Every structure is written in structure tokens, then in C-alpha cells.
Amino acid sequence: MKIARHKLLLLLLLLALTGSGCTPKQTYRVIDGVMLGTRLHIIADSPCDTLYQGAMALDREAKASMSIFEPTSLLNRLNQNLTDSLDSHILRNILLADSIHRISDGAYDITVKPLVEAWGFAGRKAEEQPNVDSLLAFVGMDKITIEGNRLRKKDPRTALDLNSIAKGYTVDLLAEYLELTGAENYIVDIGGEVRCKGVNRQGNPWRIGVESPFDGNMTDGAYIERRIALTEGAMATSGNYRRYYLNDKGQKIAHTIDPRTGYSRTSRLLSATVVAPTCAEADALCTMLLAMGDEAALAFTESHPTMAVYLILAPREGDKFEEVVSPTMEQLMM
After folding, report:
1. What is the pTM of this model?
2. pLDDT in tens, 264-302
3. In this structure, how many other beta carbons lie within 10 angstroms of the beta carbon of residue 14?
4. All domains of the chain, ordered by start, with CATH?
5. Which of 30, 84, 214, 282 has its CA 20 to 30 A from that of 271?
6. Could you tell me where the DSSP H helices lie in the chain?
């Protein structure tokens, strides 16, 4: 899905080109900060020195639209039935999410929000025993339709959670902004979701690591299983090794919820990495694979050899992870 240029990007470009914001083409700039509540890292050969300000403007725009953590965001107002009007961000995310839902046999579904909250994620405390059957009654992409720029719900209790796609989408917006400012070589990383183009300072492809998915790994790159080399495209990874808890029975409750059953999805599949043209696609697809579970994800990867997929599975015996690498992904590995 090609994400159209947003009016905000054009405004940011005009601001960047006004006054002393830009200088002649020079060395790569490095921008570090916080965006969407997680780390932001940019390396780009843009001639503009207002990249950080542009990124923060996009951060405010994305939160005001798609965040479930901002009380007054448009998404929260849609979920609370205070409005039915969609902006271009949410509309594009719903359309892409629907296309992923269709190929996932229902494993990917952005109406999963009530279940995610009931199991203690998305900023909520877990219910002692979620009433899954009751919640499933208003979960499902078939519960929503779009008419023009308006969201229609069959059940007012249906609520959307775009956390599995919105961060990747914002990476795409930021990458497009960099290109509008003149960047020909760049990498954008928001919390491990990445999009890049061209080459690094040494003239080589950008190298992106895939972390080791052992439970509790919070080291941000200290333990790497593989490295992917990209000169254009996006990459995202989903895993259940960070956001999880153990219930009173000692069972692992992971943040990936299967919308078909209503329960946390844990399997031998520990992490799924996807390379795609856009980060929104990569983001949604790797979440889809994780929600499918190991057997279905393996079957999907085998039946889609042109898709760049890297799966890491728990060992059947011993302590070495098992790997599944699609032919297309194999060509990108270093």
C-alpha cells in the first residue's frame, strides 16, 4: 500500500525551506529523541537542520489521530462514539488492516481492543477472569464498515486498536518527510520499526539487527540473531518476549491476542520479522504471523515465498533457537 503524501508533510517542508532551515547538501545528520513514547533514531543526508522539529510535529499529529493513550485523540473519540468522522490517517490504517485481515484467516484484527484491555494490556489492569465469550460478541472486522469518511459500527461497543500498524505508518510518514526535505539516503527507526533508503556513510546498505527473543530481553540490540541489509524498504519485528506477565497459575499471558479465540496467543513462534515496501505493511504482517501461531505462520510463510519473512521458534530440544527464513529474506541476510 503506497501511503499518499499528507498535507502536514507539505507544510513541514515549507517550514523547513523557509529562512535558515536548510543548508547546502552535506554530511549525514543524526537525530535522536523520543517519538510515540519510544526511542527515535534518524540518520539522513537531508540538507535541512530542522529535521527534529519536523519529526516532533509528526509525533503530535500521529498522537492526536491514532493514539489509544491520548484521551482526546480522534481514535479514542471514535471508540467512545463521540464522532464517526475519520481523518486520512485512520482511514488508511483501517483499509490496510482490512487487507491484512483478509489474508490472515481472521488472525489479524484491529477491533481486538476490548480483549487487549481485558487481558491487562493497552494501559489497563488485567481482569481476574475476562469474560471472553461476551467480548467476542463485538470483536471482528465484520462489525465495522466505512461510508465515505465515516465509520459505521454494528455494535457501539466495538473499539479499534491501531497499535499494531500505526507506529509503522508513522515511520512511513517520517521517511516521506525526509525525502521531501531532500534526503536521498536515510534510515528511520521508531522503537525498532525501520524504514530506509540508499546507503550509509560508508556507502554500504543499511544493516538492521533482529534481536534474540528470549523472555525479558530489554537490551535494545545487545543480543542479535541476524542482520538484514536493505537499500530500500521497511522492516518490523513482533515478539512476545517483552510484553507479557505470568498469571496466578504461572501461565504466560502475552500481549498478542488471537481475535478468533479471545485468548493470549503463545506458541513456539517467539518472533516474526517482515520486510515490506512500507513499514505499515511490515508492522501489520509480523503481528499477523505472531497471532497465527507457529504452525499457521510456517504454512503461510511456505505458501508466500516472495514475502520476506524471518521466524524464530523455541527449540524442540536443547537451547538453540530454530529459524525459518523465506527465500526472499535469505537474499537480504548478511
Report:
1. 0.90
2. 988 999 999 999 999 999 999 999 999 999 999 999 999
3. 11
4. 69-153 (1.10.3980.10), 232-334 (3.10.520.10)
5. 30
6. 7-17, 51-66, 74-79, 88-103, 113-118, 132-136, 166-180, 279-292, 294-303, 327-330
